[in-house]
């Protein structure tokens, strides 16, 4: 049974091994992924939004569940050998800025942050950051949930750590929201992924452990301003405590609460 108002982390391996809870969450997350992708016209008509990253056993899914055993947001983190091989960089290739982004990605592979992440096998491609909120949820509520989910993942050592880097292509609006929170977003390129896009996107990266520390250093009053009672009131337990401890005998599915 899914917990209400919780963040789950599971892997493609869990789904392949038919972990019952992981399969249930993944089915719901894939549903909202498919709906989101089709609504943005990223792909032609499809039955299910599945791609090469879903076949990588170590792909991690971070999913926020809500009341009524639903899923309202989530994203993927897939280990990559280097930035030019990421889907976040490749997704620009069909637009007029594709060549520029590939060159930027190659240059970033020489950056010390990228080199240290590669050497420690902690370079991740953040993709399919999608949402499925009801009309009654205001923009602030959506942002709170999205950021809470991101913060929770930043606390998990399997996808975070001192050298971890998350590469992404996100909307410029979301990049601005992260910056307003005091999170350092390293923008590598900004522009339109496709000529049909109305808004700019940002190709860049964050260091999750560093970002989490910066956010927690803001103090409770500023944290509350951004994320409200979902993070606070219980000493930021949403991002600071893993309820189900990981053991060798237990499945790798864990609940961050």
List the main descriptive attributes of the protein structure presented here.
257 residues; alpha+beta; eight-stranded mixed beta sheet; 8 strands; 37% helix; disordered C terminus
Characterise this structure.
With 257 residues, this protein is α+β, with helices and mostly antiparallel strands. The chain has helices spanning 12-16, 20-39, 87-90, 98-108, 112-119, 139-154, 172-180, 208-216, 220-227, 237-240; strands at residues 6-11, 60-66, 70-79, 123-131, 165-171, 186-191, 201-206, 254-256. An 8-stranded mixed β-sheet has the order 6-7-5-4-3-2-1-8, sandwiched between helices. The chain is globular and about 45 Å long. The relative contact order is 0.15.
Query: What proportion of the residues form beta strands (DSSP E)?
Result: 15-25%
Which sequence of SSEs, written as H and E, runs from N to C? EHHEEHHHEHEHEEHHHE
Radius of gyration: 17 Å
Computed structural class? alpha+beta
Please provide the count of β strands.
8
Q: Characterize the biggest β-sheet.
A: 8 strands, mixed
Instruction: Output the number of helix runs.
Output: 10
Q: What coarse outline follows from CA principal-axis ratios?
A: globular
Q: Stretches where pLDDT falls below 50 for ≥5 residues?
A: 229-257
Task: Give, in spatial order, the strands making up the sheet with the most strands.
Answer: 6-7-5-4-3-2-1-8
Helix content estimate: 25-40%
- How far do the termini sit from each other? 15 Å
């Amino acid at each position: 049974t899914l917990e209400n108002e919780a963040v789950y982390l599971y892997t493609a391996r869990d789904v392949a091994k038919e972990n019952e809870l992981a399969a249930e969450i993944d089915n719901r997350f894939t549903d909202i992924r498919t709906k989101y992708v089709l609504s943005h016209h990223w792909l032609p008509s499809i039955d299910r939004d599945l791609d090469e990253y879903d076949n990588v056993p170590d792909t991690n899914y971070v999913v926020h569940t809500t009341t009524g055993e639903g899923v309202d947001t989530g994203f993927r983190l897939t280990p990559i050998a280097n930035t030019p091989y990421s889907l976040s960089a490749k997704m620009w290739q069909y637009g007029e800025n594709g060549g520029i982004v590939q060159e930027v990605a190659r240059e970033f592979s020489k950056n010390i942050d990228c080199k240290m992440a590669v050497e420690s096998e902690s370079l991740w491609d953040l993709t399919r950051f999608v949402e499925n909120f009801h009309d009654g949820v205001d923009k602030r509520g959506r942002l709170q949930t999205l950021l809470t989910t991101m913060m929770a993942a930043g606390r998990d050592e399997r996808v975070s750590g001192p050298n971890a880097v998350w590469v992404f292509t996100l909307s410029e609006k979301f990049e601005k929201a992260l910056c307003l929170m005091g999170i350092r977003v390293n923008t590598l390129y900004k522009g339109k992924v496709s000529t049909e896009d109305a808004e700019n996107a940002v190709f860049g990266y964050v260091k999750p452990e560093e970002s989490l520390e910066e956010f927690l250093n803001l103090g409770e009053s500023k944290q509350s301003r951004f994320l409200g009672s979902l993070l606070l009131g219980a000493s930021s337990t949403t991002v600071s405590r893993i309820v189900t401890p990981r053991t060798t005998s237990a499945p790798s599915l864990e609940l961050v609460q």
